[in-house]
Amino acid sequence: MSNKPSLPQGTRDFNAATVQKRNYIFQVIRTVFELYGFQPLETPAMENLSTLMGKYGEEGDKLIFKILNNGLDNPAKKEQALIDFNKILAGKNNNGITERALRYDLTIPFARYVAMNYGSLVLPFKRYQIQPVWRADRPQKGRYREFYQCDADVVGSNSLLNELELTAIYATVFERLKLPVEIRVNSRKILAALAEICGGSDQLVNITVAIDKLDKIGLEKVKEELALKGLSEVQMATIEKYLAIAGSSEEKLRQLQILLGENEMGKAGIAEISYLLNAVKTQLPNAQLLIDQTLARGLNYYTGIIFEIKAIGAQMGSIGGGGRYDDLTGLFGVPNVPGVGISFGVDRIYDVLEELQLFPAAVNSGTQILFFNLGQAESARAYTLMQMVRERGIAAELFHEQAKLDKQFKYAEKKNIPYIIIIGSSELADGTCSIKQIETGQQQTILQTELLQQQIFS
């Protein structure tokens, strides 16, 4: 039996360089969230299974990581546990086996938090949340079983100003990351109108789930899936006409009005999209906002405008998404609380920034100065100077032991430390130190009292 260590499929370790790049993304997003008045929130990694199940549609429920209860190896429980476990394998939940699960996203835990604390919240309540989530998905490029989400949500307001603000957040974050993106929008009201003229509102989930797979399986497979759900040839022809709408955002709106304009839900959806499109043109002229009527987002709780972000020039799926959900807290006994939110897929954003080589060089700046260790008295003086350097906000290290110069040089090179400072016996005696820049090889000897005046500290 091999003892070779391994990772669970779909998870990753992150070395220092990767963590620094990820922290750069987190910091940009966090700064923009707070710039727009959002406050931080954290919720537990696990939720009660009843909190999560039934909130993500049939496909999403299959991807929830369930946690086995404690004590199932107890002989008194073992026989019943095996019976219950077989029921779970057959697709039935059983509290005797599992009653908790890892969170699938941050939106449902947020809705649960709002429902539990609704009486004490100042509305509209604006929160952001940056935490990992877990999905029992098939791992592939850009799709992991453990990954971070960065969410911003507003609850307690019906105003479309919130959708404009969230669009501005997307535009600002990606502008700061220097990553060109398309902000694609649609409306679940438009999709609901399509469902109503294609068999009734009970077909909404079937239609949105099928359309959501369009990019992956193609039009013919989508039609096959809809046929299996009982849609007629005439109804599928209407859906095909809907999916074929093309042109600029304004042209798409006109075609949607022709196809759905007599439906009240369709009128409402088109009006909301029109407002956002015009507001973005006026207030965010540099944002690339596009109407994409094929955008469905398979999560059942969306009710209004929905978002999806695509990176321009990168081989990657969506790197962000969200939308309006006007009664999500109703799932937890607090009805009629409108909300809207967006999410950033940090892991995918990371992959795109790597692919396009958009990370700034300074992101991986770690230790800036290495003080050589050349003896007990010398290292004691070096340690005093190092603490002064650190107080100036410069990351510095003292080599851990007295060693040959070559060994200490190699340590600095391998860690990409740009400067070394040498205090040997002669430097200790005359109060000087030698500074060498690794990249250029330039070296100078200065007074130790002048160290903090060097350009490295500017």
What labels would you give this structure?
single chain, 458 residues, alpha+beta, BirA Bifunctional Protein, domain 2, Rossmann fold, 2 domains, 8-stranded mixed β-sheet, 16 strands, 19% strand
Please give the domain count.
2
**Mean pLDDT across all residues, rounded?**
89
> Low-confidence runs (pLDDT<50, min 5 residues)?
none
CATH top-level class of the largest domain = Alpha Beta
**Strand order, largest beta sheet:** 1-5-6-11-10-9-7-8
| Cα radius of gyration in angstroms | 28 Å
Q: Count up the helices.
A: 16
How many runs of DSSP E, i.e. beta strands? 16
**What is the end-to-end distance?**
57 Å
Fill in the CATH topology of the largest domain.
Answer: BirA Bifunctional Protein, domain 2
Query: Could you say what the CATH architecture of the largest domain is?
Result: 2-Layer Sandwich
Structural class: alpha+beta
Shape call: elongated
How much of the sequence lies in strands comes to 15-25%
Helical coverage, percent range: 40-55%
Major sheet: size, sense and barrel closure?
8 strands, mixed
What does this protein look like?
The protein is of the alpha+beta class and 458 residues long. Helices cover 41% and strands 19% of the residues. It is built from 16 helices and 16 strands. An eight-stranded mixed sheet has the order 1-5-6-11-10-9-7-8. It has a five-stranded mixed sheet with strand order 13-12-14-15-16. The longest helix is centred in the first third of the chain and has 20 residues, at 16-35. The termini are far apart.
Summarize, please.
This protein is an alpha+beta fold. It has helices at residues 16-35, 49-52, 57-61, 75-89, 107-117, 161-176, 188-196, 204-211, 214-228, 233-243, 249-260, 264-283, 346-355, 376-391, 405-414, 425-430; strands at 39-40, 46-48, 66-68, 98-102, 125-134, 146-155, 181-187, 289-291, 305-311, 318-324, 339-345, 369-371, 396-398, 419-422, 432-437, 443-447.
